């Protein structure tokens, strides 16, 4: 099958790799334009997908606008059977309607749950025990198309969003290949989503992630896990921002004001919440290196 792949971050690379090493033909790879970053904007930054495609000598298309005539003409010239999308922009109908079999997208939830840009983060934040992956046919709206295939993925009690992200990456390639095989053989029936069960998973931002210690300790525990490692949750300590990547919840009645921090400067760093406290284990001063609690306490002085 002739396939055009569209994606950007490292999460998309295992699917592209699986397609490249399959019997299918990857005709071209579409990703975001390069941009300048680093100190003084002096470093050219390329997407993880572009780096992989260049290593394999695949044709790379980096349109600034997805409705640009030259880009659309190139897609039509290739006459793809299918477009496969993983972590890319919203596509206009002019693009997703080109392939013979349509355009499929991989989404990191069991749709219609957690539609949006951050399904992994929100599944952990909500304390879900099960999430999964969905392949679906793209339509006019975001994450609303007919479902092709789903696979359940358990969320362990101590999973962070990063743990779940990595586990999904490991199985995503074979999952997409199975979808394509069933689609090609006619052994799959696209199923409409049940919109009444839909939930949202909007993009998450660091500046919105200050921890509210008036909340129950278990909600804080889930929030910290769901924002770890990126964009991270945080609080303020000694007039500086302190990112928190993991903490153990302790349910215990206490008389402390929520947000109170206690430490012996040797073994523990404890933040009190509404119905218990968090034993902080993995953290980082903003702008410094991430560290475990022992290293953190070794460098901490009373104020």
UniProtKB/TrEMBL annotation:
It comes from Membranihabitans marinus. Residues 1-178 form the Formyl transferase N-terminal domain. This is Methionyl-tRNA formyltransferase. One of its GO terms (molecular function) is methionyl-tRNA formyltransferase activity. NCBIfam families: fmt. Belongs to the Fmt family. InterPro entries: Fmt, Formyl_trans_C, Formyl_transf_N, Formyl_transf_N_sf, Formyl_transferase-like_C_sf, Met-tRNA-FMT_C, Met-tRNA-FMT_N. The gene is fmt. It is an enzyme of class 2 (transferase). Its EC number is 2.1.2.9. Attaches a formyl group to the free amino group of methionyl-tRNA(fMet). The formyl group appears to play a dual role in the initiator identity of N-formylmethionyl-tRNA by promoting its recognition by IF2 and preventing the misappropriation of this tRNA by the elongation apparatus. Keywords: Protein biosynthesis, Transferase. (6S)-5,6,7,8-tetrahydrofolate binds at residues 109-112. It holds the Pfam family Formyl_trans_C. The keyword Phosphoprotein does not apply. CDD domains: FMT_core_Met-tRNA-FMT_N (cd08646), Met_tRNA_FMT_C (cd08704). Residues 208-300 form the Formyl transferase C-terminal domain.
């Amino acid at each position: 099958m002739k396939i055009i792949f569209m994606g950007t971050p490292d999460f998309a690379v295992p699917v592209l790799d699986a397609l490249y090493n399959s019997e299918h033909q990857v005709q071209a790879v579409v990703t975001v334009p390069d941009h300048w970053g680093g100190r003084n904007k002096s470093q050219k930054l390329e997407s993880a997908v572009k780096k992989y495609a260049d290593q394999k000598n695949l044709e790379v298309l980096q349109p600034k606008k997805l409705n640009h005539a030259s880009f659309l003409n190139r897609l039509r010239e290739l006459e793809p059977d299918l477009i496969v999308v993983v972590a890319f922009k919203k596509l206009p109908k002019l693009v997703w309607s080109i392939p013979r079999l349509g355009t499929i997208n991989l989404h990191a939830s069991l749709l219609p749950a957690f539609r949006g840009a951050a399904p992994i983060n929100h599944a952990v934040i909500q304390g879900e025990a099960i999430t999964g992956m969905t392949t679906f046919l793209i339509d006019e709206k975001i994450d609303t198309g007919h479902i092709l295939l789903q696979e359940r993925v358990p969320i362990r009690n101590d999973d962070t969003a990063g743990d779940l992200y990595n586990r999904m990456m490991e199985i995503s390639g074979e999952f997409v290949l199975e979808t394509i095989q069933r689609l090609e053989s006619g052994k799959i029936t696209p199923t409409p989503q049940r919109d009444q069960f839909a939930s949202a998973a909007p993009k998450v931002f660091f500046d919105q992630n200050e921890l509210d210690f008036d909340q129950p300790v278990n909600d804080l525990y889930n929030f910290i896990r769901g924002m770890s490692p990126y964009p991270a949750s945080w609080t303020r300590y000694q007039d500086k921002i302190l990112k928190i990547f993991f903490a153990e919840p302790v349910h215990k009645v206490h008389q402390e004001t929520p947000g109170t921090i206690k430490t012996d400067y040797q073994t523990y760093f404890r933040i009190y919440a509404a119905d218990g406290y968090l034993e902080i284990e993995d953290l980082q001063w903003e702008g410094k290196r991430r560290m475990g609690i022992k290293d953190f306490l070794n460098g901490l002085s009373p104020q």
